[in-house]
Structures are given as C-alpha cells and as structure tokens.
Amino acid sequence: MSPRQQHPVQLTGVRKIYGGGPSAVTALDGVSYGFAEGTFTAVMGPSGSGKSTLLHCAAGLDEPTSGEVSLAGTPLRGLDETALTELRREHVAFVFQAFNLMPALTVRQNVVLPLTLAGREPDAAWVTDVIGRVGLGERTKHRPSELSGGQQQRVAIARALAGRAAITFADEPTGALDTQTATEVLALLRDQSRAAGQTIVMVTHDPVAASYADQVVFLVDGRIVHETPAPTGEGVAAVLAKLSRTKVPT
Ligand SMILES: Nc1ncnc2c1ncn2[C@@H]1O[C@H](COP(=O)(O)OP(=O)(O)OP(=O)(O)O)[C@@H](O)[C@H]1O
Fold this sequence. Notes:
InterPro entries: AAA+_ATPase, ABC_transporter-like_ATP-bd, ABC_transporter-like_CS, ABC_transpr_LolD-like, MacB-like_ATP-bd, P-loop_NTPase. By secondary structure, this protein is an alpha/beta fold.
C-alpha cells in the first residue's frame, strides 16, 4: 500500500458523471486527494463546482463513475450496502443540511442515537459537555419540533461530535447559525480535529468558516484547482473571487 492510501479519506482519480448522452454532467472530473488524519479541511468553490458530490462520494453515499475512494483504510468499491453502513457506523459522523433528527426523540436521545445503533456505550459526561458547548444545555429534553432551525442544526453537530468518530463530513454546518454560535461550533470542530485526531471535511461557502480549517481545497468544474494552507478569511475570499472568474481549461 502506498503512503497516500493511509489517509483516513482517500480519493484517487474520482470522476462522477450524472446522466448520459448530451445532457450528461461531469460533477467530478478526476479528483485525487488524501484528507490526512487529524486535519480539518474546508472544501470551497463556486456553486455547481462539485463540492457536495465530492462529500457524498468521499462518504460512500454516492458511487463514483470511476476512480477509487477509501475510508478508514477500506476501499469502498465492491462493498455492499450492509458493509458500507457498518463501516460508516464505526468510523464516520455526518453533519448534513437535512438534519435527519428523529422527531419522537429528545435532544439528548438524538445525540446518542448513532452510538446506541452502533452498540456503543455513550460517554455520558462527554455527551453533556458537547450538548452544552453547542448551547443546548437547557434543551436536552426538548424534541426537534420544539427547536428553531439553528438549534436543530446544533443537535446534528452535537450528534456528530458525541461519538468522537474518526472521520466527520459536514455540509454547511454553520449555514443556519448566528455568528456567535457558528464561531463556537467551528472552534469545537477545530478542537476535535486537533485534540482527538478527528479528520474533518467541511463544505462551506463562508470564507470565515473556512478560516477555522487547517487548509482549504478549492474546486472549479469538478477539479481541485487550488489549496490554501493556514487560511485566513480575507485570503480565502480573494482566492474565491479570482476562481469565480476563471474557467478551467479543458
Ligand atoms: N443527482 C444529480 N443529477 C444530475 N446532476 C447533478 C446531480 N447532483 C448534482 N448534479 C450536478 O453536478 C454538478 C455539481 O453539483 P454539486 O451539488 O456537487 O455542486 P456544489 O458545488 O455542491 O454546488 P452548490 O454550492 O450550489 O451547493 C452541478 O452541475 C449539478 O447540477
């Protein structure tokens, strides 16, 4: 195995084409990238550049048309749905726009649900800590319908962090949050990658959110065209402005 395949999330020559014939859309056009252990990476790019597709393919939620994805050292090609589900349960957490909260369960029950499903014993003190840090300490017994959109998003974030998954995929995790809560959540994600060695991949449109990451990967027309280590909000905004005016040569 080559060293690059050791990364917890590894994409090699990943192409994703939706549809066929003249209306086929190449959403990913040969992406090779390793998300290194314990790093927090933001994925950015213009609308339609392939960010969500990259996240879905990397997480095994969508199958590439060609190329390879491996998660936690396991190549995904050829795994059946059961094996994929088990692999994700063991190693992966998600913060996606559709919150997927269970309406009949309380905040705390929602947060520990993935652990329960995986047959793991929740670390009660850590669960309490995480719920408090996303600002829902007073709401642990509420149900999702009794919460605002931003509060529901924070439950999803607490749920992703509660199990200390090796890999977390986040799609616009702070999109519905006010600035202060967003700052807390981003700091929490950054702390988790640094302190607990979690590998976090976050799609965002927000240069300030991206500045919390260790690096930013920029997509244009389904290709990685630029990478910024140690990003600042201003630096990221400048790259984005430049890229939105650029067309990738074919
Ligand atoms: N299920 C699908 N069927 C057909 N085309 C799709 C499908 N999903 C995505 N696409 C197309 O693939 C391209 C990449 O889409 P994707 O959602 O990955 O972009 P994105 O960078 O996440 O965009 P945004 O920032 O607007 O959310 C777009 O041209 C989109 O229209």
